[in-house]
Write a structure and sequence with these properties.
The protein is built from 8 helices and 18 strands. The longest helix is centred in the N-terminal third of the chain and has 24 residues. The N terminus is likely disordered. It has 2 domains: 183 residues, 3-Layer(bba) Sandwich (FAD/NAD(P)-binding domain); 145 residues, D-Amino Acid Oxidase, Chain A, domain 2, CATH 3.30.9. By secondary structure, the chain is α/β, with parallel strands linked by helices.
Length: 395
């Protein structure tokens, strides 16, 4: 066990302070507390963050991109953990269901260019040893009768599932409370550092929380915390995503039986059907800084592209429009583990894969916090990879 576990009784500080109460911060705090570490979490509204906007696709296979084969290994490992993770979290939260649904995914093409793109993706998936089945347009419509007649072909991926991120956040919050995590419902405004080591944080309400180890898990805000030395500051930027929620009335059910994705006019569109009748449609990808405005253009583009894919969608009630910020890094991969500043660990930069990587992130950070060891699977995602690149650029 790490030395922090043997803190003398009566010491008012914590073994671990987690900065940020989104799903990544919550799972880190929960897993740390399970390892016997006295854990505190600072966030004015824990359970919020990007998870309130995310669709919850667990799409390790259909979201594969060229050059991200290493990230694929991490994504697959986390996806494999989800069934057990959902069971364990339900037990730890007193029976809360996180909406984990093994429904599979269908990625379809609407024109010849999209079909060629999808064929290339299928070839990449096959080279990576992944299971994906090519279907004709007719076979796609047999699976999902609501699809447009113009669908030219598709990929059936039975291993890409979904979870409800809002329910996931709610269950993690309860699991943390039951595990004894101490919540400070105030934002961390400054990292405290003494003798070149992170020692906790100062909060907006004036509280100073002392901790042997600090985890920065503040999503897209992680790069803005005062007090972090420049070389340890995570290179995280916000990428805006607008998402719609519609309701499928009982008369229209079943509308879709699985997640459906497509590239329309070069842009990604996905429809995620929940068992409770909600249909999530997303998502734009916009480099707009910290803006979270829902725009008429964003809503129009999503509905237009979704209508081309599934014409019947315009008959459904539109119940919610939201915009959120994904935490992106220069290489689109997360920052997991020790930073260049002793005592400061990072769990941020998950970009499109925050919900998917929740089980594995909690596991990795708990191991680092409890033993000081970084699991082999997480080593390629060390925050120090960017510090090394910066040093080389100045050499």
């Amino acid at each position: 066990m790490h030395a922090s576990v043997r803190r003398p009784p009566g010491n008012p500080g914590s073994d671990v302070l987690v900065i940020g109460g989104g799903i990544i911060g919550l799972v880190t705090a929960w897993r740390a507390a399970q390892r016997g570490l006295r854990t505190a979490l600072a966030d004015p509204a824990p359970g919020g963050g990007a998870a309130q906007v995310a669709a919850g696709m667990l799409a390790a296979v259909t979201e594969l991109h060229y050059g991200e084969e290493t990230l694929l290994g991490l994504n697959l490992a986390s996806a494999q953990r989800y069934p057990r993770f959902a069971e364990e979290l339900a037990e730890a939260s007193g029976g809360l269901d996180i909406g984990f649904r093994e429904c599979g995914t269908l990625a379809v093409a609407l024109d010849a260019d999209d079909r060629a793109h999808l064929r290339e993706l299928h070839a990449l998936q096959q080279r990576c040893g992944l299971e994906a089945q090519w279907l004709t347009g007719r076979e796609c419509r047999r699976l999902e009768p609501m699809l447009a007649p113009g669908v030219r072909g598709g990929l059936r991926v039975d291993g890409d599932h979904q979870v409800d991120p809002r329910r996931l956040a709610a269950a993690l919050l309860v699991a943390c409370e039951r595990a004894g995590v101490l919540f400070h419902r105030s934002a961390a405004v400054r990292l405290t550092v003494a003798a070149d080591r992170a020692t906790g944080a100062e909060l907006a309400d004036g509280t100073v929380v002392a901790a042997d180890q600090t985890v920065l898990a503040a999503g897209s805000l992680s790069g803005r915390l005062a007090g972090v030395p420049p070389e340890a500051l995570p290179p995280v930027r916000p990428v805006k995503g607008q998402v719609l929620r519609l309701t499928v009335p009982p008369a229209y059910a079943p509308f879709l039986s699985r997640t459906v994705r497509a590239v329309v006019r070069g842009g990604q569109i996905y429809l995620v059907p929940r068992e409770n009748g909600e249909l999530v449609v997303g998502a734009t990808s916009e480099e707009q800084g910290w803006d979270t405005t829902v725009t008429a253009g964003g809503v129009y583009e999503l509905l237009r592209d979704a209508h081309e894919l599934v014409p019947g969608i315009t008959e459904l009630p539109l119940t919610e429009t939201r915009a959120g910020l994904r935490p992106a890094t220069p290489d689109n991969a997360p920052l997991l583990g020790p930073s260049t500043l002793p005592g400061l660990h990072l769990a941020t930069g998950h970009y499109r894969n925050g919900v998917l990587l929740t089980p594995l992130t909690g596991e990795v950070l708990a191991e680092v916090l409890a033993t000081g060891e970084v699991p082999d699977l997480a080593r390629p995602f060390s925050p120090r990879r960017f510090a090394a690149a910066r040093e080389e650029s100045f050499a």
